[in-house]
Write a structure and sequence with these properties.
The structure holds two protein chains of two kinds. Chain A is mostly helical. Helices cover 75% and strands 0% of the residues of chain A. Chain B starts with a helix and ends with a helix. The chains are: A mainly alpha, B mainly alpha.
């Protein structure tokens, strides 16, 4: 028998938007977690030692992926409910929460930070470099679809399925989704490199007949960009800092410009 | 200096809101450079009656900063450079110092110098972020003590204060940088000769190569993929630069991979 109404769960999902407001080196997201689930705790435990103990329990260390935090919140509330009925002990909540936050961090970070964000950013770069002024809106609209889905659906799954929620999450086949997104990013990047690194040299103007000029310019730009990106990739994989690579590129460009090789 | 007061306040407000999104709250990703920079350009351009110019500058800055910091992930204890503040400040400094110039070349020099300066400011922003997190750690201890003493109001107060610290940090930082930074930046760009100045436009055109190299390092996993990737670059060099071609190719590759994975 579930006692928390759907509106209250939706309210908790909304409060999870503020999960990291007080992110710190001690409890990390603990204060935000407690702040988010507090209406649920207040409903499940009557005022007194039980409620106070619940508050203190959730001020312990907590860290996960913010978009999947609502899944952990849902499961935690389901367990708090069972605790209030005397079916389980406090240690079950502690252990489950710890295991689940680690699993959700791994799934969420891999999906959102490592795959989804680079993919959507690359889509947005294609539009931005094509001078589409609505690019920011396109980025926000695409990026936030799965974000809002997991944020709001997660709390209902967690609350309904309790500790079995991991089984539901497995159905998404996240590793395959990540692989697909990575390949999509790769193709879009292959489009961006020859078209949006501006390598222009005056030699083509003087040495090529005009009918071949545009094609020659495109080829020089494409292969010049490929060369630069290859060098950059080697440097980055050799753990040279991005800012140092940018600085070296700047010097390189200014020297070639000074010698009249680049315009 | 006083003539920049209104613009400085506007930028401080945008910086505060955008910085809240980067970790503390929401995480809709308006803090990503591809959104934050055009947003700043639009509001600032509107203030000066040049909304389209502001938006275009924002897109240019957003693309470069998005690429440079695309691999920076907010995982666990890792605090990445403050790309949100760097985006806001880069557009603000570049636009305000550059909009009064008549020539395209001089404006572009201002934009590029502001962009390079903002990258350094992004690193400073990271240090400020870490300072706020240390403040939040003291807050966390204080809240725990209060809850133990049954002062439950401390949860909401402590958590809200954490968000307030983040906003205030970004607000003050942006305000000071814009208010005090415009005139020195103008002076610096005036000292650059036209010849050097045009060189900065060449630098601006090449900078995306660094970001593309970082992205390539992230998505390419083995030699076989690298060969396909180079082949795709050659094909896109020879094809006309049409966005729909990139999306069709990405769609086919993603669909085939998804279908293959299902089998």
């Amino acid at each position: 028998m579930r006692t928390l109404p759907r509106t209250l769960l939706a309210r908790i999902a909304f409060r999870s938007f503020f999960l990291q407001a007080s992110w710190n080196y001690r409890g990390m997201m603990s204060m935000g977690f407690l702040y988010a689930i507090r209406p649920g705790i207040d409903q499940l435990h009557s005022p007194g030692p039980a409620r106070e103990a619940a508050y203190l329990r959730h001020l312990e260390y907590f860290n996960t992926n913010p978009y999947f935090s609502s899944v952990v919140m849902g499961v935690t509330l389901a367990l708090e409910e069972r605790l209030s009925r005397g079916e389980i002990g406090e240690d079950v909540i502690h252990d489950t929460k710890e295991g689940l936050m680690t699993a959700c961090a791994a799934i969420g970070d891999g999906l959102f930070w490592d795959s989804w964000r680079p993919f959507v950013a690359t889509v947005a770069l294609v539009f931005a470099l094509g001078n589409y002024l609505l690019t920011p809106l396109i980025f926000l609209a695409i990026y936030n679809l799965p974000h809002l889905y997991f944020r709001f659906a997660g709390i209902f799954w967690g609350y309904r399925e309790g500790t079995h929620v991991i089984r539901s999450l497995r159905q998404f086949q996240f590793p395959q989704i990540r692989q697909t997104l990575r390949l999509g990013t790769m193709v879009l990047l292959a489009y961006l490199i020859p078209n949006h690194v501006n390598v222009h040299t005056p030699f083509l103007l003087t040495n090529l007949p005009l009918e071949y000029f545009y094609f020659g310019e495109k080829v020089v730009q494409g292969f010049g960009a490929l060369l630069l990106v290859t060098l950059g990739t080697y440097a980055y994989r050799a753990r040279v800092d991005v800012l140092l690579i940018s600085f070296l590129l700047m010097i390189f460009a200014l020297v070639l410009y000074h010698w009249g090789i680049l315009i | 200096m006083p003539e920049h007061l209104l613009a400085s306040l506007l930028i401080a407000l945008i910086g505060g809101i955008v910085d809240l999104d980067s970790t503390a709250t929401w995480q809709f990703m308006i803090s990503q450079p591809i959104v934050a920079a055009p947003l700043t350009g639009l509001f600032l351009g509107n203030l000066y009656g040049e909304a389209a110019a502001g938006l275009k500058l924002g897109l240019m800055v957003g693309v470069i900063l998005q690429l440079v910091w695309i691999e920076q992930l907010p995982l666990g204890m890792n605090v990445p450079p403050d790309a949100a503040l760097a985006s806001v400040l880069s557009v603000a400094l570049g636009f305000i110092s550059g909009h009064s110039y008549e020539s395209y070349s001089e404006r572009e020099v201002c934009y590029t110098v502001a962009l390079l300066l903002a990258v350094a400011l992004g690193l400073l922003g990271r240090s400020l972020d870490m300072f706020v997190r240390r403040l939040n750690t003291s807050l966390d201890t204080w809240v725990s003590q209060k809850v133990e003493d049954n002062n439950l109001w401390a949860i909401a107060v402590g958590h809200t204060l954490g968000g307030f610290f983040t906003f205030t940090k970004a607000f003050i930082f942006c305000f000071l940088v814009v208010w005090l930074g415009i005139e020195p930046l103008k002076y610096f760009t005036q000292t650059l000769s036209f010849k050097h100045g045009s060189g900065f436009i060449v630098v601006q055109g090449l900078l995306p190569a660094v970001g593309f190299a970082v992205l390539a390092s992230m998505v390419l996993k083995d030699r076989e993929e690298t060969r396909y990737f180079i082949g795709a670059i050659v094909i896109f060099t020879l094809l006309p630069a049409k966005i729909f071609l990139a999306f069709i190719a990405a769609g086919i590759v993603m669909y085939r991979n998804h279908k293959g994975a299902k089998k």
